[in-house]
């Protein structure tokens, strides 16, 4: 049983001091063994939130800004296709059928995406992912995904444009694009910069 009282920072320090060499394939299986369960939880959580019969459920892998060797898997659901990005998987859930009907796309990390897109020939197990990586670097990504899966789901941009008036009436305000303020580097002090590899302990 996993002890929830142990913090991510404590686990990260323990992992950094572990001298064991792990098999990368075993690590990969361990990292993905609960993905289907968590996707289902996210999908069922949004059944009563969304009125539409179909919606997108996905996840992204995100690094922690403070703890260097921690990777978080963040799940979400939307009524539209999100913008593609590295370390992302997106699925289509059908409420009436009560199941996932399509894996819309899966994108690996940025380095693997670039390598796959540059290669002219890949093994059969990589062909679908290579196509997604190729489309990522070219216009009309969502159009190609719709053609591939025979779906009509809009992108985020298309969805917001189609429902613009409804959203404004519901109280969503249009935010005018403004100029960003330049960062004040005088506020950065040397003692405020922390090495993420050094574990801090407080007595």
Describe the structure.
The chain has helices at 8-16, 24-32, 35-45, 110-118, 127-136, 141-149, 156-162, 164-169, and strands at residues 54-63, 71-78, 88-94, 99-107. The protein is of the alpha+beta class. The chain has one domain. α4 packs across α5. The chain is globular, with a radius of gyration of 21 Å. The model has no long low-confidence stretch (mean pLDDT 80).
Number of domains: 1
Helix-strand sequence: HHHEEEEHHHHH
> Strand tally, please?
4
* Contiguous uncertain segments of 5+ residues: none
Number of helices: 8
Percent of residues in β-strands: 15-25%
Radius of gyration: 21 Å
Name the shape in a single word: globular
- What structural class results from the helix and strand content? alpha+beta
- Integer average pLDDT: 80
> How far apart are the termini?
29 Å
Characterize the biggest β-sheet: 4 strands, antiparallel
Share of helical residues: 25-40%
Q: Provide the spatial order of strands within the biggest beta sheet.
A: 2-1-3-4
Provide key terms for this protein:
single chain; alpha+beta; four-stranded antiparallel β-sheet; 34% helix
Helix and strand arrangement:
Layout: H1 8-16, H2 24-32, H3 35-45, E1 54-63, E2 71-78, E3 88-94, E4 99-107, H4 110-118, H5 127-136, H6 141-149, H7 156-162, H8 164-169
Antiparallel strand pairs: 1-2, 1-3, 3-4
Structure summary:
The protein is built from 8 helices and 4 strands. The chain has 203 residues and is of the alpha+beta class.
């Amino acid at each position: 049983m996993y002890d929830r009282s142990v913090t991510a920072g404590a686990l990260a320090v323990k992992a950094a001091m572990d001298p064991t060499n792990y098999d990368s394939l075993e690590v990969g299986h361990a990292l993905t063994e609960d993905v289907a369960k968590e996707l289902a939880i996210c999908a069922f959580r949004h059944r009563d939130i969304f009125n539409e019969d179909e919606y997108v459920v996905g996840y992204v892998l995100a690094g922690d800004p403070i703890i260097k060797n921690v990777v978080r898997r963040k799940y979400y659901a939307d009524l539209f296709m999100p913008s593609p990005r590295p370390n992302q998987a997106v699925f289509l859930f059908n409420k009436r059928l009560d199941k996932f009907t399509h894996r819309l796309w899966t994108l690996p990390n940025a380095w693997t995406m670039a390598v796959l897109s540059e290669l002219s020939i890949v093994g059969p197990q990589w062909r679908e992912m290579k196509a997604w990586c190729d489309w990522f670097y070219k216009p009309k990504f969502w159009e190609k995904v719709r053609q591939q899966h025979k779906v009509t789901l809009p992108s985020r941009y298309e969805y917001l444009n189609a429902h613009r008036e409804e959203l404004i009436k519901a109280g969503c305000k249009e935010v005018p694009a403004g100029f960003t303020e330049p960062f004040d580097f005088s506020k950065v002090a040397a003692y405020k910069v922390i090495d993420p590899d050094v574990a801090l302990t407080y007595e």
